[in-house]
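re: the backbone from monday

yeah here it is again, tokenized this time
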């Protein structure tokens, strides 16, 4: 009986919104805007259906539900993220390594286990999901992973939470770029297909979440440390080569 033995379901949402567009498409509203509004309604309804089914199956109170996204908003298909203020104060969009491209929401619901209505400032990433799921299931993940279990934070025990020294991202497209976060500090380096020593920008996310004030010139010690992190974290790949680094 899988309902008693336990199982994992990944619901990768593919929103079909055509039946919800009409209510948001008066003559003065462009179709992509109406489509986005319809998608949000459809998403909300579909998540509600999943939650209702869990209740009908009698497993609602022993099911962990995690809701998140893969990246920030995009501009493809005529979508206008500024119209909906999709990013608030954040800079950038999908495929950018500024916070607007990589910072996403995460909501966890586990009745009676995860305290409801609580926020967390834990710095984490999606690669932390695997060890977290393993910890919930009571099994050990393989040793060769980058993630850290978030379970102590979910249980309301932040004093037991392990922390990343840094988080690292790289993106092959749009000239080649990479970024790292270490505590409150965020470093971004771009144009890596042409210049291996391209400038590194530095931001203090505690005081500058919009990443508008480059502090690199004021903190050469941090820039040196982030260069070490970039060299340490980058793994060369024949399929996804940063041309300048390869040469």
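seq for it, each position gets an aa:
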């Amino acid at each position: 009986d899988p309902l008693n033995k336990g199982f994992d379901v990944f619901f990768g949402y593919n929103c079909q919104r055509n039946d919800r567009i009409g209510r948001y498409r008066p003559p003065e509203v462009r179709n992509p805007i109406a489509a986005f509004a319809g998608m949000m309604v459809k998403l909300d309804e579909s998540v509600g259906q999943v939650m209702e089914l869990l209740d009908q199956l009698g497993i609602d109170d022993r099911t962990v539900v995690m809701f998140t996204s893969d990246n920030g908003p995009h501009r493809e298909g005529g979508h206008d993220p500024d119209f909906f203020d999709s990013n608030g104060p954040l800079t950038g969009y999908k495929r950018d390594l500024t916070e607007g491209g990589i910072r996403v929401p995460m909501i966890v619901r586990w009745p009676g286990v995860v305290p409801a209505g609580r926020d967390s400032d834990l710095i984490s990433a999606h690669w932390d999901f695997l060890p977290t799921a393993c910890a919930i299931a009571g099994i050990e993940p393989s040793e060769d992973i980058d993630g850290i279990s978030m379970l102590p934070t979910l249980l309301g025990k932040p004093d037991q939470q392990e922390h990343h020294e840094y988080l690292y991202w790289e993106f092959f497209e749009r000239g080649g770029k990479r970024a790292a976060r270490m505590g409150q500090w965020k470093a971004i380096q771009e144009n890596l297909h042409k210049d291996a020593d391209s400038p590194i920008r530095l931001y203090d996310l505690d005081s500058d979440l919009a990443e508008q004030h480059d502090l690199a010139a004021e903190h050469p010690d941090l820039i040196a440390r982030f260069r070490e992190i970039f060299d340490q974290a980058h793994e060369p790949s024949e399929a996804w080569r940063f041309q300048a680094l390869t040469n």
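The chain has eight helices and six strands. The domain at 167-246 is CATH 3.30.1120.10 (Arylsulfatase, C-terminal domain).
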